[in-house]
Amino acid sequence: MKSTKIVFMGSPAFSIPSLEALIQNFSVVGVVTQPDKPAGRGKELKSPPIKEIAQQHGLNLIQPRKLSDEGVFDVLKGWDPDVIIVVAFGQILRKNVLELPKYGCVNIHGSLLPRWRGAAPIQTAILHGDETTG
Q: How many CB atoms lie within 10 A of CB 96?
């Protein structure tokens, strides 16, 4: 399966186990994550956790403000992915991105959609007493 080319899109620590599993089993040709952002009292730039993992593994990495920014689609197209895996990425994938990979795009979500959508699906499931989640 190492010949299957994967582009991974994700940002927070929640998405790290998925990226690491893909790295072990597939050819991850590129990673897309959110831009570094000011954080903490000193407002120092902080990288998304996925950026650190991608750099540790020497993976191609881009951090566009928006997927629709100039040149971003050209980079994705150049990576020629068979599939795009999305985990807590935080941006909407437009039609051109959704149609790019041969096998489409797969979204891994923390809840059983559509029950708990949004930014905190696991916390919401716990608050509502759900015994299982995504």
A: 12
CA distances from 98 to 6, 13, 93, 117 (A): 13, 24, 6, 20
* Mean pLDDT of the region 58-80: 97
Model pLDDT for residues 12-44, shown as the tens digit of each residue: 999 999 999 999 999 999 999 999 998 888 888
Rounded Cα distance between 108 and 98, Å, is 15
Distance of CA 106 to the CA centre of its chain: 10
Predicted TM-score of the model (pTM): 0.89
